[in-house]
Amino acid sequence: MRIYDFRSDTITRPSQAMRDVMYKAECGDDVYLEDNTVIELERLSAEFTGKEKGLFVSSGTMGNLLPLMIFGGIRKEIIVEKKCHILHYELGGVSSLASLMPVAIETEKGILTKELVSKVMNDNPPYFLGKTSMVSVENTHNKAGGTCYPLDTLKELYDYVNSKKVYFHMDGARVCNAAVAQGTTVKEISKYTDSITFCLSKGLGAPMGAMLCGDADFIEESRVFRKIIGGGLRQIGIMASAGIYALTNNIPDLEIDHKNAKLLANAVNESGMGKIDLKDVETNILVFDTFDKAEHVCKVLENNGIKTIVFDEYKLRMVTHRDISEIQVKEAVEIMLKWKSLS
User: Fold this and answer.
1) Phi/psi class of residue 54: alpha, beta or left (left: φ > 0; alpha: ψ in -120 to 50)?
2) Where in the chain is the domain with CATH 3.40.640.10?
């Protein structure tokens, strides 16, 4: 039985072309700042985001944690969206390691706005209240189903936060998906951030790693904190070369993933297993309501070769990615359309 694994775009594997580049990669000691491949990846990432400097980190979680640690501390607060990755999938590092108190705002589609943030902003509080030191947004938003920040909304929010002299970070693990979906560039999106993290290992297909980008002083301080938490790596050019290949070759393919997500969404609606508003499928993630309990739907689909993730009692997530072609997605769709006869 063929397996169609839609659990996540994190399962992507390096292509043969990427492996060839990795095999030939120049390496040095990155803790001594002597790995030229890492240096090139960091230069390329800074240019890609329009920031002064970039820093290669082991994961998106680390890329988020470093600014949290820099701007965290006793009494300090961070404003985030209620279902964001920092709160749900980073094991509480925001508080246990960065000493930040999260102020979580519930939204309809994972999008923070100036209006919402202004209601909880504590930029100049009395001594007995916490003080807002950071705002962080997630773009695209995983638990909201891969939704993107409209640029005008993002700009308005950034300008407001900036006017309060509060730091603005973007968890842009899948920001490349947002740029492709909106017909813009990551550099344009990054204009409305102080720092941004983006992953190399999800839809871009590298085996590991993320980039943290910002101004020069921030990145140098982040390098110190990266070492403190065990992120100083040595001959890591092998992995950095995969990141360079991903950035220079794999971004256009994300549009295919977005089209494939629409195919799956149509199949969900037509099959009778669940429902989803097609307008909510903006990128490569679909989170849909199931008519039966999600655990049951997930098990039946897996018994027929389709792997998904349970997101709630009556919600499933599917993620398209470069390791499943359009032809294979259409094969999975044919299976889904037989839902009423599956067991």
Assistant:
1) beta
2) 16-249
* Three-class SS state of 247: helix
Other C-beta atoms closer than 10 Å to the C-beta of 328 total 14
Could you give the CA distance from residue 186 to residue 204 in angstroms, rounded to a whole number?
14
pTM flag (> 0.85): yes
Cα 22 from Cα 5, distance rounded (Å) = 25
Measured CA to CA, the distance from residue 195 to residue 167 in angstroms comes to: 9
For CATH 3.90.1150.10, list the domain ranges present in the chain. Answer: 253-341
Distance CA 182, CA 284 (A): 13
Strand ranges of the sheet holding 274-275, from the earlier edge strand across to the other edge: 274-275, 285-290, 315-319, 309-312
Give the CATH number of domain 16-249; options: 3.40.30.10, 3.40.640.10, 3.40.50.10330, 1.20.140.10: 3.40.640.10
Percent helix / strand / coil, the chain, rounded to 5 = 45, 20, 35
Q: Which CATH architecture has domain 253-341?
A: Alpha-Beta Complex (3.90)
Indicate the helix (H) or strand (E) that contains 217. Answer: helix 216-228
- Tens-digit pLDDT string for the chain (343 aa): 899 999 999 999 999 999 999 999 999 999 999 999 999 999 999 999 999 999 999 999 999 999 999 999 999 999 999 999 999 999 999 999 999 999 999 998 999 999 999 999 999 999 999 999 999 999 999 999 999 999 999 999 999 999 999 999 999 999 999 999 999 999 999 999 999 999 999 999 999 999 999 999 999 999 999 999 999 999 999 999 999 999 999 999 999 999 999 999 999 999 999 999 999 999 999 999 999 999 999 999 999 999 999 999 999 999 999 999 999 999 999 999 999 898 6
Q: Give the Cα separation of 13 and 89 in Å (integer).
A: 22
Between the alpha carbon of residue 212 and those of residues 59, 156, 169, the distances in Å are 10, 23, 10
